[in-house]
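User: Structure with thiamine diphosphate, tokens only please.
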Amino acid sequence: MEAYSRELINSLEEKGKLLRRDCIKCIGVGVAGHVGGSCSAADLVAALYFYKMKYDPKNPEWEGRDYFLLSKGHVGILQYSALAEAGFFPTEDLLHCKEPGFYLQGHPHLGTPGVEVGTGSLGQGLSLGLGIALGLQMDHKPNRVYVLVGDGEQNEGQIWEAAMAAGAKKPDNLCAIIDNNGLQAQGPIRDRLDSAPIADKWKAFGWNVIEIDGHNMEEILKALDAAEATKGKPTAIVAHTIKGKGISFAEGVTGFHNAPLSKEQYEQALSELS
Ligand SMILES: Cc1ncc(C[n+]2csc(CCOP(=O)(O)OP(=O)(O)O)c2C)c(N)n1
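Assistant:
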């Protein structure tokens, strides 16, 4: 018997596509936006917000909530899309993303409903997540903490400081998800500052490590459930993904890390994701 129903998997796959479409709408035409890293992580974020995490969109500070931290804060549009689709704020607001003075800016900041920490300066989210996880443990709370980290972001020293501290303190309510799309802002990570072998490094720091195809919904759900069932150490899910996933002209193309879309590209992207 399959662990997850086909209906559940299908509906979450649809959510992943919906989040990608929302991201494209956030970006619009002629203004640069993070197409690539949003689309690579969309299935992971869909599984978190629409399968795994506990939250109350009407009461974002509900004390029973799980925490999501977008350490790769440059894809704020992806978190906004998930929050809007989950009911934290109107989906129409996504169309005003990055307008001067509007509450949805390029990087998540405190004050936006559902955003736990400000991020955008790479490397910081895991330390923040570790602090929250340890605090929850000290208070004997069951809440879990999920931190989405980029693979290029592994170049930041602070990631390894947090990884080492978590390996030593062993908060099993902490789950890092590494979006291993192989590209950073200016090219393949292996040609810039190679972070491989990522899984072996996290294992060496004392984490429970699970490697998955980050676009296979069943594997994502299994990994998230296995992370929750793992006691005595934090879990790192190394998710192998494709930058720009779902948009043929952007898949695996460095140029769509942070790119403006022409009107034709905008329409093609929405149609391919429909
Ligand atoms: C401290 C810091 N240095 C540089 C940047 C600029 N920057 C934004 S995204 C990015 C590449 C990140 O690569 P990765 O983590 O692989 O992100 P993804 O490919 O998943 O979008 C860089 C260098 C930044 N935001 N913060």
